[in-house]
Write the structure tokens for this entry.
Amino acid sequence: MPFTLKEIAKHLDGSLKGDPHTIIYRFAPLEKAKEGDLSFVDNEKLLSLAENSKASALILKEGWETKKNAVYVQNPRLALAKILQLFSHRRKPLAGVHPTAILEEGVKLGKDVSIGAYTYISSNVHIGDGTIIYPLCYIGENSKIGKNVTIYAGVVIYDDVEIGDNCIIHSGTVIGADGFGYVKDGDKNVKIPHIGKVIIEEDVEIGANTTIDRATMGETRIGRGTKIDNLVQIAHNVEIGENSIIVAQVGISGSVKIGKNVTLAGQAGIADHLEIGDGATIAAQAGVIGNVPANSVYSGYPARPHSQQMRILALLQRLPELVKSVEELKEKINQLEKGGNEQ
């Protein structure tokens, strides 16, 4: 759907320079933009490239200059997110229940809910207004799904799971499976039943093929506004605070408490029963085996304060040189001892 530049500026709460009636058909990167396209610049060094592009208009940070049509905003990266929503072509399914879907007794649907083909919804499930559940999903009994939730195809949600408003759950995700808990009885591993819940607060996004285990007792909880990437494992009784970022292939062991605004970078691993303070950052592939204080940056294995880890890595680069020096010193000592013995 085309938009005028005036409509785009209004959508972005930005200020307009140039022809407000310019028609924009697409959003495109600078190097591929052509007439009728809108591009954005988030780095002042790219302004010359933007000037020479074929884009009909630009999104720029306030204070930057251009001869082209432009919409000026305070945060071009945030504007990018908003404009991509505007130009998204992903079709939303119509409200209603597909004839092949199965809804058990006691299911309650809000207004304008969409239930896709071959989806199974168990008894006593409550689903809020405007929620979309794509085909081939399973929703376990007594679960509660909030308003305007999007659950993509192939998601499995076990019993007694609560999902807040405006959440997005991508394909292949499993929420509410049993945690990994066993106790020894002689040589046998006896399963510990998991009778707790999973609670996903509002505005959470969960990437594809992520798993969130139910609590042994009590709850596993994901805080409001937290964003979880693909292929993340979150074990039983984990608590994650608000607005945290969990990047791909992170593994979080049982009963870990993670604060607000925490970042766990890709492939980080967190041992069980630890606490990570508000605002902390765990670098990629870090192995955390102790508590992490608030507003700190940890990296490496075992994870240490990042500045300390960098010093260790710098010394490791000199290790061959240090070994050579030690060998030379040993040889000199041997020669001195040999000379002393001959006297």
